């Protein structure tokens, strides 16, 4: 197993002075108390108010097209009601509000086929509670203005349907000695990569005449000042604002693309070009609402958003069946790296949603490696339980001191072990960054 030095590098000392509990408590609790609803979508601010109708009571009475093959009930209903989340549909099914051919079913995985008659009523939103939890946090840096956390894989950043506890928000509430809070919530995507640009457009002057400044500020603030997010499966660095000034300042830095963000991933296959810039808009996948897709062409309002990623192959692994790839984001769209990697034909290893399946990994790795390694490869692939993506570096201008600060955390043991095993089969250095 590869031994990685997990020391961080920063220009400021850790925990240089205590934070103001009153200030943080006021900021966070006010935001929670006014919060109108959560969303993991990448909609622009002008689109948010219309979504707040929340779909409660919306009915669907429809017969499945005869040309449709077998589909999961939750997936089919989600595809028929534009804008409602899959999590919301699943809640409706489990609540007994959906019937197939006159019989109520509470199984979200129930398979429907052509000719089936489906009756569905969308359930009311159920309040989500974020309660302080004594969750160990890897705090890289903290002062009274900002908090930088090294998020582990499998931790959800904020409460959402199906992920109400064990979140980063709950850990921060406990860390800051803040109370339990409740708010209505709905998730559009099950987990979200760094969606900073989409959320922080609220600070732009380009708003609709009927846009409510205060409500959107609360919408962004509800996740204790979290100005960008990482997928549940993604590990690495994330910054949290501890007051409104810091939130607004960091938001402006994200908007101007001056935040430094570097990610590393292990991919299925190697891109045709070892370096490149992917300038392809991203929008929701029309065939699968739980994922995004790279959509070539001019960005279309409401359908896709401008998205740019730069990548560099650091190392070819296992005879070219895999690669260690560095990513630098110029924008921060929902699932941006995952969608762009899929577009390049190199889905992230372990990313079942975007094509980096176990079968895909085996089909690429085994032909390029000697038979003596096939057993080890099969075991390695079977143990991967998340997309191999890590937020390695985060740099920004401190909202109060104006000093440029920079942090690095190397990948956690699960990522390091996979990398080590692939290197043991075969490795070819392409570029030589100084962090590995």
Automatic annotation (TrEMBL):
Taxonomically, which superkingdom?
Eukaryota
Entry-linked SMART domains: S4 (SM00363)
Q: Which GO terms describe its molecular function?
A: pseudouridine synthase activity; RNA binding
Instruction: Please state every residue range assigned to the domain named RNA-binding S4.
Output: 71-136
Which InterPro entries does the protein's record reference?
PsdUridine_synth_cat_dom_sf, PsdUridine_synth_RluA-like_CS, PsdUridine_synth_RsuA/RluA, RluA_PseudoU_synthase, S4_RNA-bd, S4_RNA-bd_sf
Q: Which UniProt keywords apply?
A: Isomerase, RNA-binding
**Family per similarity comment:** Belongs to the pseudouridine synthase RluA family.
Protein known as: RNA-binding S4 domain-containing protein
Which organism is this protein's natural source?
A: Solanum pinnatisectum (tansyleaf nightshade)
